[in-house]
Structure prediction request, 120 residues.
Amino acid sequence: MDGVRYNIILSTNWIRIPPRHQSKWTKVETVVPEGVVFTFIGNPRVRVPDGPKFLVKNHPDKATLTTGQWIESMILMRVGTFQYNGEVIAMYDYGLTNVGTIKVTDATNRVTTGTNQLSR
Prediction:
């Protein structure tokens, strides 16, 4: 993000939304040029009022997400606020996946390669 690589598992700058221990899910409100607007919603089997909205930049599925689609959890970094329909909502960034080649040498000096997708 902004030219900085983060380990999304170890970095304290990234948070899981919603947290795993909560029964809330998120629903796609709409897709806008700046990203995807989501709404916190309770478990879809239980009727609860809609919660706060937030924008996610760089969501990898932006092109295929549709209004009303459910998303269970995302790891995001808060980057500011966004004006949406006359209200100020939180803005998060999904980041861009950093895929790199890893070379591993085993006991017989055979080199194998793989990819690392834990950082953004």
